[in-house]
Each structure stands twice: as C-alpha cells, then as structure tokens.
Task: inverse folding
C-alpha cells in the first residue's frame, strides 16, 4: 500500500450540508430569515440558508459562508442545533445536515438575495410559510432550544437592541414561549432581578416617554447564582 492510500477506505460517504436558523426581533415579532430557492429541488419554495460543506472547511465555517453567500449576512453561528439524517430528507441522495442557530439584532442586519437564493425575507415565527426539505423539523427543534436558552443564558439580550423598553422585552418573551405574561408581574420580576440597568435621562426633555434599559451582565450572573443556589 502506498503512503497516499494508507488512509483511504472503501466505505460509502453521504453528502454533508449545513443550514442556518437565523433569528431577530423587531420590537414586536420574533422573525426568521428564509430564502426562496432558485434551483431544484424545491425550486421557488422557502428554506433556511445553507448548502454543501467544502472539503477544506469546518461545519461552522461552512454555515457562515453559506449564510453570507445567500443572504449577505456575515455572522458566525451562535450554537449548533443538531444533525438531521432522515434517509429521504433530500431527493438528490443521502444527505446529512447540521443546523446552526444564529442571532442578530434588527438594527444591525441588512439582507440581500444572492447566489442560490431567488429571494430573501424575514418571517414572523408564528406565521411561517411551508418549508422545503425537513426544515419544519429543524424549526421545531430550534424553538425548543431557544426556550431552554432563554431560561439559562443571557441570550434574550442578543436579540434586543442596546436600548430597549420593558414592553419590548415582554413581547419577545411572549413570542418565544408562545404565552402571554401578566404585565405587572413580568416587569416587577425583571426590575427586581438586577439584570436590567435603566438609562438615565432628563425627565423634562422626555416627558412621559418610556424608560429605556440596558443589559446588566453582572446582574444577570448574580441573579442566576441566586436562582440556582450557587456559591
């Protein structure tokens, strides 16, 4: 056996792809970024931005590259959602995909359809079109992971703009948990948690304008330690 064939095997290899579940919050709706496919299979149907893994890149690198190539968004994925390997998930042949969750703020994201995307658009997560491939299954898994992360990490503040109001935060939580919260209890909980820092302003200039807040990272971790009785 020659040296260059030492690690060559006769085993069958499936195709490998990546998909991006990209979310932002516009102050009212939690939204997901979708592309309308330019080519078959599923031509003209909506899907997550994604594509095939190149030989010289990691899954994370492929996800970021495909997202930029198809939508113009240049953002690293936040967390891996999981791998999806249903035998019949792709009519082109056996294909295994790994999906990633990416979070953006509404004031930092400009989109433009490029490459294999015929169109690109944001959709409210509660009003999604039919999705190509097995992307509905990926979508449901992403929603579950998002709920877990909202309870354990400062991920909500990655979706909020630098300055936000309590009603905006309440709407975000309602979108994620698919449940309305009592306004008084919700706001009382967050104000007392120490996770929010009010932004000082001149009351004479602002009048009855709403109070804006910033994320207080130290307050968040202190709240989590108290919540889980750590240290």
Result:
């Amino acid at each position: 056996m020659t040296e260059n064939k030492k690690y060559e095997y006769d085993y069958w290899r499936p195709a490998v792809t990546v998909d991006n579940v990209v979310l932002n919050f516009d102050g009212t709706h939690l939204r997901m970024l979708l592309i309308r496919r330019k080519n078959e299979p599923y031509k003209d149907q909506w899907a997550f931005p994604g594509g095939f893994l190149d030989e010289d890149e990691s899954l994370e690198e492929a996800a970021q590259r495909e997202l930029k190539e198809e939508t113009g968004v240049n953002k690293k994925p936040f967390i891996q959602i999981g791998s999806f390997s249903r035998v019949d998930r792709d009519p082109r042949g056996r294909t295994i995909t790994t999906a990633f969750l990416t979070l953006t703020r509404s004031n930092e994201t400009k989109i433009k359809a490029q490459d294999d995307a015929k169109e690109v658009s944001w959709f409210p997560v509660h009003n999604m079109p039919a999705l190509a491939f097995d992307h509905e299954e990926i979508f449901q898994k992403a929603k579950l992971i998002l709920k877990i992360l909202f309870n354990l990490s400062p991920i909500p503040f990655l979706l909020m703009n630098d300055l936000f109001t309590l009603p905006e935060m309440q709407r975000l939580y309602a979108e994620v948990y698919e449940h309305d919260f009592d306004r008084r209890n919700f706001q009382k909980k967050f104000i007392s948690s120490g996770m929010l820092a009010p932004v000082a302003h001149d009351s004479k200039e602002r009048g009855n304008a709403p109070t804006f807040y910033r994320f207080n990272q130290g307050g968040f971790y202190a709240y989590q330690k108290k919540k889980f009785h750590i240290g």
Remarks:
- The chain is about 30% helix and 25% strand.
- The radius of gyration is 21 Å.
